[in-house]
Structure formats: structure tokens, C-alpha cells
Design brief:
This protein is α+β, with helices and mostly antiparallel strands and 336 residues long. It folds into three domains: 83 residues, no CATH class; 71 residues; 154 residues, Histidine kinase-like ATPase, C-terminal domain (Heat Shock Protein 90, 2-Layer Sandwich). Helix content is 58%, strand content 13%. Strands 2-4-5-7-6 form a five-stranded mixed β-sheet, covered by helices on one side. A two-stranded antiparallel sheet has the order 1-3.
């Protein structure tokens, strides 16, 4: 609190005090009081008014200074009320009680919003599970009757299935702890499951698929890691070259981490887009020019990796290659 601004806010009170002192002085003069007595009286009144103003300034300044300091130190600003000391004056009490009421109202609105949001997410999850049943049936029917259904029709169904998975995992990414089970899983098993799921797309696009996965285990959530790897492979397929396309998956291990590298010799990513590939809704040059993209795939898997405690990096050179690197830490905290 600045003293100059405090004085400005109290100009009316100061003016009234000055007017009172002048009035007292005039009355004393009218009653022909000795000049020494008038000077003493006016001086005492002026000093008293000044002391009251200064005292009030320091009292309020101390309160608001502590309030501002506590607020600055907090990441969650709404918790500042818990740090305010017991108010000493009626004015401070009114302010603190008002802040409590405001905070209470805010929390009630947030709780109501969260309730509605959670209900919507639950509805979306239920709807997605219902939709996936006929999609699976259509895929099975197409596989069993390939002579009746064009391969492009099956490809569209797979794209639809992947898009619905993306929606499901995005909805769940806000509350992963509800669907979160950390255990030791074999990377080879995860890679095998995802490669089988993408088998038709790999064959249709004439993409060579190579793996070099040792008998390595990592601490993760099996279902989430399958989704992450599936999204990466889907991107590799989507942004492949016209011919001689290849996807390589290789695992490495050292003392403190296990690394899974997914390499493709596709069209790569322009250097200007590399820093933003994990940003929400960022489609980049390739997403606008080559194929339609939502820009959500890499954003979701980055978010899931953060919650799983995994690191994810992306290296690429335009028209040459793209490499996605997943790092799994070796930490006792994950041991079950």
C-alpha cells in the first residue's frame, strides 16, 4: 500500500479535519483567546489528526501487505483465505467474511460444473462402448466376406474405430487414476498386440514392419501403453512415403531406463513444426496439406505419458524420417 494513494483515498476525511481545525481557530479568535493558546490548540488538533491518519495507514498496510505476500507465495490463489490471520478490526472482519462467502460460492459452482462434466464424460464412455460393438461386428463381417466388401470399406471402419478410441482416451485422460493399473508388462507383448491390430493397414500400404524387442519389462499400464503405441504407428502409416516404406520398433536398456524407439522413413516433419507437435489441436503443415488431421493424437499420448511417468520425445527430418522415443524409468516407486 502506497502512502500517497492512501492519502488520496482519504482526501475527504483530511479536508473535514482541516476545516474543523480552521473552524476551531476562528471560534477561539472570536472569543479573543490568547494567540499562544490558539497556536497550541491548533497544533494539538493537527498532530492528533495526523497521528490517527498515519496509525490507520500502518495498521491497514500491515494487514494488506501480509495478505499480498501470502497470495504471491501460493500456487493455488484461492487458498489465501487459510493464511489470513484473525482480523483485528470490524473493517477487516467484513472483508474476510465477504471473501469467505465469495470463495464458498465459487467452490459450489466449481463442484456443480465438475459434477456435470463427469456425468457427460460417463455418458460419452457408455456411448462409445455401445458404438464399438456394431463397429467390431462390421469389421468381422468384412473379414469373413472379403469378396463382397471392398478393402477400402474395411479401411474406413478401422479409421472410425481408431477415431472413437481417440475420443475415449481423451475423455479418460482427465481421470486416468480411475482406470489406472501399474504393473510389469513385456514390451514384446505390447508391440505384438498393436502390430496385429494394424496388420491390415500395414499390408494394404505395403509397409515393411520390423521389430527388435528383447525380453524387456517395464512398469506401466498395459492398456494405456497399447493405445499410445497404436497412435504412433497410425501416424507412421498415415504419413508414409509412396514406396519402400518401413516402420522399425527397437528397444534399448541401460542402468536407469528402458527406451522404446519407433522409426519410420516417412515424409517427416518440417523443422518449424517440431516444437509444437505435442500442442493441443496443432495439425502442422502435413496435417493441412497431406491428410486431414485433428491435431489431438500426439497431444493425448503426451498427456498420458506424463501421467504414467514416461518421457516421450520426437525427432524428425523432413522427407527423411520420424523417430518417436518412449522412455520408461526404473524407479522403485512403481514396483508392485
Amino acid at each position: 500500500m502506497k502512502f500517497s494513494k492512501y492519502l488520496k483515498d482519504n482526501l475527504i476525511s483530511i479536508a473535514i479535519n482541516l476545516a474543523t481545525i480552521v473552524l476551531v481557530m476562528l471560534v477561539l479568535v472570536a472569543f479573543k483567546v490568547q494567540i499562544q493558546a490558539i497556536i497550541i490548540t491548533v497544533t494539538v488538533l493537527a498532530l492528533s489528526s495526523s497521528i490517527i491518519i498515519i496509525k490507520n495507514f500502518f495498521r491497514k498496510n500491515e494487514f494488506y501487505k501480509q495478505f499480498s505476500s501470502n497470495l504471491e507465495k501460493l500456487d493455488k490463489k484461492y487458498l489465501v483465505l487459510e493464511t489470513i490471520p484473525e482480523p483485528n478490526t470490524y473493517e477487516e472482519k467484513i472483508m474476510v467474511e465477504s471473501l469467505y462467502e465469495i470463495n464458498k460460492s465459487m467452490l459450489e459452482n466449481i463442484n456443480e460444473y465438475q459434477k456435470n462434466t463427469n456425468e457427460f464424460k460417463e455418458f460419452v464412455e457408455i456411448w462409445i462402448h455401445e458404438v464399438k460393438i456394431p463397429i467390431s461386428s462390421m469389421m468381422l463381417k468384412c473379414h469373413n466376406n472379403k469378396q463382397k466388401y471392398d478393402e477400402s470399406f474395411l479401411s474406413l471402419i478401422r479409421r472410425l474405430d481408431n477415431s472413437i478410441d481417440e475420443v475415449l482416451y481423451y475423455v479418460r485422460s482427465e481421470n486416468t487414476e480411475k482406470d489406472f493399473t501399474i504393473s510389469q508388462v513385456e514390451l514384446k507383448e505390447i508391440v505384438r498386440t498393436v502390430s496385429i491390430k494394424n496388420k491390415d493397414d500395414l499390408l494394404e500400404n505395403n509397409i515393411s514392419f520390423e521389430t527388435n524387442i528383447g525380453a524387456l519389462k517395464v512398469n506401466t499400464d498395459k492398456k494405456w501403453l497399447e493405445f499410445i503405441l497404436n497412435q504412433i504407428i497410425n501416424n507412421s502409416i498415415k504419413y508414409k512415403k509412396r514406396e519402400d516404406s518401413i516402420i522399425k520398433i527397437e528397444s534399448k536398456e541401460n542402468e536407469d531406463k528402458v527406451t522404446l524407439e519407433i522409426y519410420d522413413n516417412g515424409i517427416g516433419i518440417p523443422a518449424k513444426d517440431l516444437k509444437r507437435v505435442f500442442d493441443k489441436s496443432f495439425t502442422g503443415t502435413n496435417g493441412r496439406n497431406r491428410v486431414k488431421s485433428t491435431g489431438m493424437g500426439l497431444y493425448i499420448i503426451k498427456k498420458l505419458c506424463n501421467k504414467l511417468g514416461h518421457n516421450i520425445y520426437l525427432q524428425s527430418e523432413e522427407n527423411r524420417y520420424t523417430k518417436v522415443i518412449l522412455e520408461f524409468g526404473k524407479n522403485d516407486i512403481y514396483k508392485i
